[in-house]
């Protein structure tokens, strides 16, 4: 964990939950401090993960393409392995196929190629699928649920649980969009504030919601008969299990289901804890995994600049920026306070600056990122955690105004790579400049050099000629 995770923990507690409007919601609760969305101090980690996931979804414009091979582990290795290259091969209902094309999907994503035939197979098969955020998991299970629904049955057949209110709404939006030519398929949101009359059985064939509300709807309110659920989807398992309450509720829901129910579990990461949980809720699974594309420093020129204090760093930054033709730059600060100070001063110098700060709601952050992406501002000042998930593709200069340091005072190499690295695919060249303000930070630079086996060259920002020859 890097230093500024501290700040973010506090930021999260201060932040307010974004509120989205949705058809089913009659009453929304603006407070973030509910068990449902993990607002308590103990579970900030879950809130952090969930917020990150939501931010990624809000700012994502398209599929994250991946060139790695998909690993498939079949429950029955003897059975043929089907994968599809087109949506037609899935023999979907025409209305559903129209919905898929209407979303602009021309062909299945890498994970969908294997996951879709498995999810749609008869007899039903259980599946555990892991791939990084943005690779098409939500679209895949949304399609599977829409295809699974039997319109003759006027009861809930597909249940999908998601770790937070906002993430559940995001999934619901995908289902609504994909199912827009299937008017008879109905969806209900089991999220806080969506009060249903007790005892009346829901007719919506698909229910998406958070574990607490879904459990209530199955047990206390008896709106759903869990024995009639034939497809159970558990999304963002890694985020879900970061809160014990959610994990336990998910297991309790799972216990209410029958053995015949098809179980599908999705996760962006797969640590041991996720794996243990997955094995518990998904018996005899097929497993699909798609490794993340590695980030590299191969195409990045790295420099350091010796400075004294923050004012000196600021002058160096201005020299650097003023003398180079830079498309866009991202500047990382350790604390929110430093980021605010820097952005004010850069603005005073006439720069167009965007600031990403922890007290902003997720929607506000998404809007800032969107403006930056559209080139409305050329500089983005941020703390570390706020900026996770931003593609640095169009950013040619990354400045570590403060170096990434862990709580142990040592170099946080992972964060360093994350800030300045790129996947091989976006092999465009870039520059990284590290501000060094003393012996301690010089040691950090050496640690980073050793770790990545790359030289970080000194840069004198007052020497324009030298700078131009080095950064060209
Ligand atoms: N086959 C496809 N062709 C083109 N775009 C797609 C395809 N499948 C999904 N997408 C788009 O790619 C983006 C990411 O998809 P999706 O949200 O399903 O990924 P995800 O793996 O579920 O991400 P997360 O883990 O964040 O939930 C979305 O904008 C989605 O509309």
Automatic annotation (TrEMBL):
Compartments, record wording: Cytoplasm; Nucleus
- Keyword RNA-binding (UniProt): yes
Tell me which EC number(s) this protein carries: 3.6.4.13
Report the residue ranges that make up the Helicase C-terminal domain in this protein: 299-467
Gene3D superfamilies on file? 6.10.250.2170, P-loop containing nucleotide triphosphate hydrolases
Please list the residue ranges annotated as the DEAD-box RNA helicase Q domain: 85-113
What UniProt keywords are attached to this protein's entry? Answer: ATP-binding, Cytoplasm, Helicase, Hydrolase, Nucleotide-binding, Nucleus, RNA-binding
* Helicase ATP-binding domain span: 118-288
Q: Name it.
A: RNA helicase
Where the record places motif Q motif is 85-113
> In the UniProt record, which is one GO cellular component term?
nucleus
Q: Which organism is it from?
A: Gasterosteus aculeatus aculeatus (three-spined stickleback)
Reactions accelerated catalytically? ATP + H2O = ADP + phosphate + H(+)
The enzyme class is hydrolase
What's one Pfam family the UniProt record gives for this protein?
A: Helicase_C
Which molecular function terms from Gene Ontology are attached? ATP binding; hydrolase activity; RNA binding; RNA helicase activity
CDD domains with a match to the protein in the record: SF2_C_DEAD
């Amino acid at each position: 964990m890097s230093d500024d995770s501290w700040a973010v923990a506090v930021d999260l507690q201060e932040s307010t939950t974004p509120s989205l409007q949705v058809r089913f919601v009659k009453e929304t609760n603006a407070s973030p401090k509910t068990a449902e969305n993990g607002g308590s101090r103990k579970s900030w980690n879950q809130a952090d993960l969930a917020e990150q996931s939501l931010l990624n979804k809000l700012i994502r414009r398209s599929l994250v393409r991946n060139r790695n091979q998909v690993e498939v582990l079949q429950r029955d290795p003897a059975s043929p392995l089907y994968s599809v290259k087109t949506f037609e091969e899935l023999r979907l209902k025409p209305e559903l196929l129209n919905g898929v094309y209407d979303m602009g999907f021309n062909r299945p994503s890498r994970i969908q190629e294997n996951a879709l035939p498995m999810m749609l197979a008869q007899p039903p098969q259980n599946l555990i699928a892991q791939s990084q955020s943005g690779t098409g998991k939500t679209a895949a299970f949304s399609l599977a649920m829409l295809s699974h629904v039997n319109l003759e049955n006027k009861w809930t057949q597909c249940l999908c649980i998601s770790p937070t209110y906002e993430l559940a709404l995001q999934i619901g939006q995908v289902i609504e969009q994909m199912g827009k030519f299937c008017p008879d398929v109905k969806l209900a949101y089991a999220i806080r504030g969506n009060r249903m009359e007790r005892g009346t059985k829901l007719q919506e064939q698909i229910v998406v919601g958070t574990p607490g509300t879904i459990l209530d709807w199955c047990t206390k309110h008896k709106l759903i008969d869990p024995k009639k659920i034939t497809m159970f989807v558990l999304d963002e398992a890694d985020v879900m299990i970061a809160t014990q309450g959610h994990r336990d509720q998910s297991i309790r829901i799972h216990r209410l289901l029958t053995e015949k129910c098809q179980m599908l579990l999705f996760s962006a990461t797969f640590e041991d804890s996720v794996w243990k949980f997955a094995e518990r809720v998904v018996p005899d699974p097929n497993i699909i995994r798609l490794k993340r594309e590695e980030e590299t420093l191969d195409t990045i020129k790295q420099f350091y600049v010796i400075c004294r204090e923050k004012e000196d760093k600021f002058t160096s930054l201005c020299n650097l920026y003023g003398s180079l033709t830079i498309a866009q730059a991202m500047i990382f600060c350790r604390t929110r306070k430093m980021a605010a100070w820097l952005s004010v001063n850069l603005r005073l110098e006439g720069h167009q600056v965007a600031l990403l700060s922890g007290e902003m709601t997720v929607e506000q952050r998404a809007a800032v990122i969107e403006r930056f992406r559209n080139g409305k501002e050329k500089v983005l000042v941020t703390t570390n955690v706020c900026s996770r998930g931003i593609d640095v593709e169009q950013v040619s200069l990354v400045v570590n105004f403060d170096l990434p340091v862990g709580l142990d005072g040592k170099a946080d190499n992972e964060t360093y790579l994350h800030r300045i690295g790129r996947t091989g695919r976006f092999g465009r060249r870039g520059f990284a400049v590290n501000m060094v303000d003393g012996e301690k930070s010089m040691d950090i630079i050496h640690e980073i050099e050793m770790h990545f086996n790359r030289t970080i060259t000194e840069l004198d920002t007052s020497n324009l000629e030298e700078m131009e020859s080095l950064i060209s």
